Amino acid sequence: CLSRGLGDVYKRQVSTQSTGSKPNTPPIGNAPDKTQDLGVFLQQLLSGMQQKFEEMSTTILRQIDEMGERIDDLENQMEGIMTQAGIDKSKVKQQIKEEQQKKEAVSYTH
User: Fold this and answer.
1) What is the pLDDT of residues 35-94, one digit of tens each?
2) 40 Cβ contact partners less than 8 Å away, ≥ 6 residues apart
3) In 10 A of CB 5, how many CB atoms?
4) CA 80 to CA 73: how far, in whole Å?
5) What is the largest CA-CA distance in the chain?
6) For the chain, how far is it from start to end, CA to CA, in angstroms?
7) DSSP string of 70-109?
8) Among 47, 16, 18, 44, which residue's Cα sits nearest to residue 30?
9) Residue 79 neighbours by CB distance under 10 Å
10) Is residue 17 classed as helix, strand or coil in its secondary structure?
11) For residues 54 and 47, what is the distance between their CA atoms, to the nearest angstrom?
């Protein structure tokens, strides 16, 4: 009985697809039920999406700025520690530069 009912549903779907007529389907969620409402619905949807995008962009940019400030603070603290320890900043920078050049030379040879 169940398989016969499913067969009938399948036949109706195939028949509607071949004739091109669309079965009446109820609207889903906030989807418009009239064609003339479609433009308004899409405009509101796109407007909401744009607003969310702008909010997210603002949040991301603010967080990037905060991270930059933290990095600047860390660099200043490191310089203070190096000065207290009597470490010459120019020698450290030169050592870092030499290490980077060695790594680049190794990566070019492989």
Assistant:
1) 768 888 999 999 999 999 999 999 999 999 999 999 999 999 998 998 888 888 888 888
2) 32
3) 9
4) 11
5) 90
6) 70
7) HHHHHHHHHHHHHHHHT--HHHHHHHHHHHHHHHHHHHHH
8) 44
9) 13
10) helix
11) 11
Give the pLDDT confidence score for residue 37 in this predicted structure: 83
* Residue pair 35/41 in contact by the 8 Å Cβ criterion: no
32 with 41: CB under 8 angstroms? yes
CB 82 within 8 A of CB 89: yes
For tokens 């899409």, what's the residue? Answer: 42
Q: Which residues contact 30 (CB under 8 A, 6 or more apart)?
A: 41
Distance CA 24, CA 41 (A): 20
